[in-house]
Structure to design on (185 residues):
């Protein structure tokens, strides 16, 4: 499946998403990010958004910009943040500070050696954390990125990509479920 096919599957009420997915996946629509960063953010957030058709289309498109290490880095960011976002969101929301003093006892080795540039991995982790809604993780990754010299414009571009990818995944899921329900009646 291609990105064009995905865009064609979006219903008329999601016209803005059709336009935005075409825009945010370009250097002009994602100011400050390289094509490699754009593709890796798109792939990691598509995986996090959990729509297999969208993920397949994004990965196919992304492979024209990414080597195997960056594809693996995008997958790894989605995987580790899938775990960390739940755990750290719990710490943030539980309103019992004692949990924060306890060791996590979760393996997170990929963060120390992601196989790609560490700031790029932080950018992917931030974007996935935005999709997964972990405020504590967003704050932590944004701070590391800013300390590493990544601009607010670059960070905003990554989060804009994440927001569009997540919205497209949701509309595709809803549209498919509605079509299936109508067909079964």
């Amino acid at each position: 499946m291609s990105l064009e096919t995905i865009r064609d599957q979006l219903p008329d009420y999601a016209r803005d998403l059709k336009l935005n997915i075409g825009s945010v996946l370009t250097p002009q629509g994602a100011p400050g990010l390289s094509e490699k960063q754009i593709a890796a953010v798109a792939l990691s957030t598509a995986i996090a958004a959990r729509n297999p058709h969208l993920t397949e289309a994004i990965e196919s498109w992304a492979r024209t910009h990414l080597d195997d290490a960056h594809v693996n880095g995008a997958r790894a960011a989605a995987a580790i943040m899938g775990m960390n976002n739940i755990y750290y969101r719990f710490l943030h929301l539980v309103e019992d500070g004692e949990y924060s003093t306890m060791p996590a006892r979760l393996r997170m080795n990929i963060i120390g050696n992601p196989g790609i540039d560490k700031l790029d991995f932080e950018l992917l982790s931030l974007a996935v954390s935005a999709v997964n809604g972990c405020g504590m993780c967003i704050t932590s990754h944004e701070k590391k990125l800013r300390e590493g010299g990544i601009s607010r414009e670059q960070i905003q571009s990554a989060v804009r990509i994440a927001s569009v990818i997540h919205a497209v995944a949701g509309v595709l899921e809803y549209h498919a479920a509605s079509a299936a329900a109508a067909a079964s009646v």
Summary: The first helix runs from residue 3 to 9. The chain has a mean pLDDT of 97. The two ends are 28 Å apart (CA to CA). The CA atoms of residues 5 and 155 lie 28 Å apart.
